[in-house]
Design goal:
Strand content: 15-25%
Distance between the termini: 67 Å
CATH superfamily: Alpha/Beta hydrolase fold, catalytic domain
Oligomer: single chain
Structural class: alpha/beta
CATH topology: Rossmann fold
Shape: globular
Helix content: 40-55%
Length: 182
């Protein structure tokens, strides 16, 4: 199978788009697939090709602070990490709207590995238009997903809220301890 791989920018977001050469102009299901921490869209090209071989149009965006947009936000690594996740979340609608406005997508899927998996879970908490998703090494709380018989969106929302609550409570506690020291 031959693929058409296009490197472009959508609203200043560098992406690779992969599609079967014989289906470039067809309306296809779209997968937006997010890469992991300290990598780039090129490093998930293999996954993109595999998905395209199954009849999907695939969009591989570079996360903020990664790939073509590499920059360190802070010397505190976790701050750069969460800034990148937040950027992915903010930019998702630009990517979705681009493909929807072109009329070349039927259903919408998201997926990702590691940081991209966390992005995927967070997107599920607010975007009911997502038909299905796959998070590889990025579930905020896999135990909840396994044990509670809730919808994917309900599980994702409760899991993401749990991990973000723990993250922010930890940060608040750290700041409080620093303030309390004489």
């Amino acid at each position: 199978m031959k693929f058409k791989i296009v490197k472009r920018k959508i609203k200043d977001i560098p992406v690779l788009e992969i599609v079967d050469k014989t289906k470039v102009d067809h309306k296809l299901p779209l997968v937006i697939y997010y890469h992991g921490w300290q990598t780039s869209k090129e490093l998930v090209l293999t996954q993109g090709r595999k998905l395209a071989s199954q009849g999907f149009r695939v969009c591989l965006p570079d996360a903020p602070n990664h790939g073509e947009r590499h920059q360190n936000v802070s010397s505190v690594i976790s701050l750069t990490f969460w800034n990148s996740v937040q950027g992915n979340l903010a930019e998702y609608e630009y990517l979705r709207d681009h493909y929807v406005s072109q009329g070349i997508t039927s259903n919408l899927f998201v997926g990702g590995v590691s940081m991209g998996g966390i992005t995927t879970c967070a997107l599920l908490t607010h975007h009911t238009e997502i038909t299905a998703a796959a998070s590889i090494m990025g579930e905020p709380s896999p135990f909840i997903f396994e044990c509670e018989p809730l919808s994917v969106q309900q599980n994702a929302k409760s899991s993401f809220q749990a991990i973000m609550g723990t993250f922010f409570l930890g940060k608040i506690a750290m700041i409080w301890q620093k303030i309390q020291k004489p």
